[in-house]
């Protein structure tokens, strides 16, 4: 009896056939059969057959090539490192800063509703000062990300690569400190379109800069994360220029004020309460990523989570 069969039930071959060929998967055989049927149907117009054949061939090539493209463009280790650094470390800063910045939304909304327009600019600056101070503390986590990840039991190879990626995200922390208060400042005035346009334009710039940094300049993970930080700063600068120059913000932005440094303790209490609510929502996935790095094959597990 052929070893590929057992009690009349077909079993997949576990070794190459004697002639050296590799058996095709059922999906590949099906695609080839469908392609042959389309090409041999002489009654169908030529261009119609060509279009159908192209679609079938493209689907087959995509299934075969897409995984290889991802691996060759990023690499298993780099993708796992970016996943661990971005989700395991960076998202803690993102959740904390976004939560603290969300407190501005309540205060700005109240001030705008009460027609105390000048207070919106004060709240914006006060929140930026507070989040910048918080960012200085978060920088320590980024700087010591490698020993922290090793302490949590992550693979030394992945932890080392992830720390390189995280180092390039340090400027992003301070972009968060300005961006989130600006967003809430604008949203309280129902100004949302400019931020959308700026973010969309920055996306294309980000793709171009990422390609240049990673593939043309060979900067690898550090280049990718530095470009990510730069893109956030482009958004911040563009939004701030809009605030300073726009007629819609003339009443709410009166320039820089020393009042931004007053009342920080009470402002911190409100911001901290807001941050806790959001952090509890985001940290659970961060824990899942850290746990995935402890599995038997951490690169595969982290790659899967990153793509998912």
Which short descriptors sum up this protein?
disordered N terminus; two-stranded antiparallel sheet; antiporter activity; 12 helices; 308 residues; membrane; 75% helix; mainly alpha; globular
What does this structure look like?
Helices cover 75% and strands 1% of the residues. It is mostly helical. The chain has 2 domains: 32-71; 75-295, no CATH class. A two-stranded antiparallel sheet has the order 1-2. A hairpin with a 2-residue loop joins strand 1 (5-6) and strand 2. Helix 6 (145-151) runs antiparallel to helix 7. It is globular, with a radius of gyration of 27 Å. The model is unreliable at 1-25 and 67-73 (pLDDT under 50).
The low-pLDDT segments are 1-25, 67-73
Number of strands: 2
- Side by side, the strands of the main sheet go 1-2
Relative helix content? over 70%
Short description:
With 308 residues, the chain is mainly α.
Task: Itemize the secondary structure elements and their pairings.
Elements: E1 5-6, E2 9-10, H1 26-40, H2 46-73, H3 76-101, H4 103-113, H5 118-143, H6 145-151, H7 156-167, H8 170-187, H9 193-216, H10 220-245, H11 264-292, H12 298-307
Antiparallel strand pairs: 1-2
Organism: Brassica napus
Transmembrane segments: 60-82, 88-108, 129-152, 158-179, 191-214, 220-245
Keywords: Membrane, Transmembrane, Transmembrane helix
